[in-house]
Amino acid sequence: MKIKNSFLFLLLALVVISCDKKSVFDEYKSVDNSWHKDTIVSFKLPQLDKAKKYDLFVNIRNNNDYPYNNLFLIVSMEQPNKKVVVDTLEYQMANPDGTLMGEGFSDVKLSKLLYKENVSFDLKGDYTVKIQHANRQTGKIVGVESLKGVTDVGFRIELK
Question: E-strand spans in the chain?
Answer without folding.
Answer: 23-30, 34-36, 41-44, 54-62, 70-78, 84-92, 109-119, 128-133, 146-148, 150-159
